[in-house]
Amino acid sequence: MSTGELSAKATSHQNSVVDKLLQRDAIKDLSRTNQRLADYVGREPIQALRAIDIEAPKTTFTSTHKVPEVNAEVFEIDHLKSAMASHGCLIIRGLFNSTKMTDFCRVIDLAMEATETQPKQGEPASDIAEIFLNPPSEIASLVPRPGIDFARAFHRETGSVMCVESASISEHLLELYESVGIKNLVADYLGEAPCLSALKWVLRRPKLPINRDGWHQDGAFMGEGINSLNMWIAANHCGGESGAPGMDLLPQRLLKILGAGEGEAVFDWSVSDHAMRTPQYDNAITAPVFEAGDALFFDHFLLHRTQYGHNFIRPRYAIETWFFGAKNFPSNQVPLSW
Ligand SMILES: O=C(O)CCC(=O)C(=O)O
Questions:
Q1: 320 lines ligand 1 (CB under 6 A)
Q2: What is the distance between the alpha carbons of residues 68 and 76, in angstroms, rounded to a whole number?
Q3: pLDDT, tens digit, for every residue of 230-288?
Q4: Ligand 1 pocket mutation pick from 247, 266, 297, 321 by most atoms within 8 angstroms of CB
Q5: How close is the Cα of 308 to the center of ligand 1, in Å?
Q6: Which is the closest atom of ligand 1 to the Cα of 305?
Q7: Which ranges of the chain have pLDDT less than 50?
Q8: Going by fewer Cβ within 10 Å, which terminus of the chain is more open, N or C?
Q9: CATH of 3-337 among 1.10.287.110, 3.30.1030.10, 2.60.120.620, 3.20.20.140
Q10: 114: how many CB neighbours lie within 10 A of its CB?
Q11: Domain segments of the chain: what residues?
């Protein structure tokens, strides 16, 4: 697809989040994102107390689902602390406006198309390409081996794109997060100010078929000692029997990395499906249904994978944002200040 076609598709969504993004100042956004990366260059992590090292309050959840959940209107920080301590995860229903999130699916399409449609050499980038593909200049030098090209190819092949490929999407999302109180929520949970990660801040529209052996704990490649919280936002109806892949979860509080690279696992950080089919895990595994705007929170010890199945008939859109302690962060995930 040419950048012209991309532009035509994008402008048919006037007054949408796409339209708002097109009105942004791409140069200003780029300079902000560059600064966020620069803030962490040469900074060493400090292994301080993590959220999971602190005794959490016990909250009663009324739902009978396997994953604790709460509606955004009644959410309090103790819900998160308690659920993370007991199950390693929590769903906050309706945390984001569902119309805005549904609208965001177009942004994900355009961001993915933009990374596949680089402007030809010597050809100036169109307005749309400037917004949807304006990565920070230093990113290539900051990504550890096997490097940025590997990371980009991995994302393209699996159906995802790093948010920082578009500084404007990144800055837009940070503003959105702040407007619904996410910065305070994450700081309250972590017990320290948060930072983000260029490598683990990802727009997702997973390609089918889903990998059966993709179970993993992110701590297998981030390290165990970090202070982390992931916010995974569904941008469309998915999970369960909805016809679009959600997430398969083992909602149990784990405090170490289990069996990385075991059995038929595809990566040295993943776990095979066979290894998960023990009586201890099998009854607990669940694939919750999500609506646009619902958010799932978990940390680097939760065992999960993109929901596996054969009956998917619709794409799934999601935004994954890993937050870390501003002091206790994994340096290999290319931290960004917030
Ligand atoms: O969105 C997905 O399917 C996978 C997300 C994931 O693995 C993660 O958030 O760590």
A1: yes
A2: 13
A3: 999 999 999 999 999 999 999 999 999 986 555 555 566 677 888 888 888 888 999 99
A4: 247
A5: 12
A6: 7
A7: 1-13
A8: N
A9: 2.60.120.620
A10: 27
A11: 3-337
